[in-house]
Amino acid sequence: MRAAVFTGPGQPLALREVPDPVPGKGELLVKVAGCGLCHTDLHYLDHGVATAHPPPLILGHEISGTVVGEGEGAHGPKTASHVLLPAVIPCGECSLCRTGRGNICSKMRMFGNHIDGGFAELVVAPAQEVIPLPPEVPLVRGSIIADAISTPYHAVVNRAAVRAGEWVVVVGCGGVGINAVQIAAAIGAQVIAVDLNPTKLKAAAHLGAVETINAAQTPDLAKAVRSITGEGADVAFEAVGTPTTVASAVSTLRRGGRLCLIGYSAQSAPLPLNKIMFLEYTIMGSLGCRPVDYPKVVDLVRRGKVRLDPVISSEVPLARIEDALRQIRSGEGFRTIVVPAP
Length: 342
Prior knowledge:
Helix content is 24%, strand content 26%. It is α/β, with parallel strands linked by helices and 342 residues long. The protein has 2 domains: 2-146 and 289-339, Medium-chain alcohol dehydrogenases, catalytic domain (Quinone Oxidoreductase, Chain A, domain 1, Alpha-Beta Complex); 150-285, Rossmann fold (3-Layer(aba) Sandwich). The strands form 4 sheets. Strands 3, 5, 6, 9, 10, 17 and 18 form a 7-stranded mixed β-sheet that branches. The chain is built from 10 helices and 18 strands.
């Protein structure tokens, strides 16, 4: 099969013919229809973040496709079924998995990190973790549900527990932040979208933000948010991953507010400890999505409550994956989908 192989940081992905994967016991073989490009992939390629499995490795963790084979004892979607693969596969046995927190399982395996991912024509996955896609969800475009939609869903619904009517600030309207906007809006929150890019702010307004703030033109974000909300945000989501944007997000909170960190960074961020204590801020991280929630997220897309088309910038063939990487490095657009099929 054809695949784009990660050979090490700072190197372009290598388009190669590699052996077809063979499904083992309890596994399905999936023909990849689409695989979303994520900034996590850039962390491996550009920023020196190590993959759990050393290269060579096939990246890509937002995968949809069609079941084309099964290993011994595989019980799950049958051959020819349209399916979604969760970005992270939990072990199902540890204390975290048993208490419903499989998204932070210490033995997790992630496509394109621990095991070969979806920048290839074929991939194998445990049958019990594979999620059927209904006909109302387009197969290629549905791939981004695996992370770009499910990750902000977990952050908004489970971690920050956003309620209808609350004021929510989303700092950073990229591939994940833009979907935090539309999911929070879908459950009835009043969303303020913050970004440097006017095009992204326009899209955020289209997807439910009641107000938008261009941070490049706003010297005091906290003051701007309070001018809209009165007392500040009930919840702030940071979806960039820099110390500066974390500080900005914290500054927008009202007394008793909640800060949820979705953006990744290896850096430390200064936090106002006096305010965290005195104003009883709650600060939490959010990673991926619990396995039990994937069918709920798929159903939101099926019913049109969460939309895919406005947050997908383009679809590109596997042979043009480097062009797609250049696009996301530029900061333009939201999600680009790699289509491995010729």
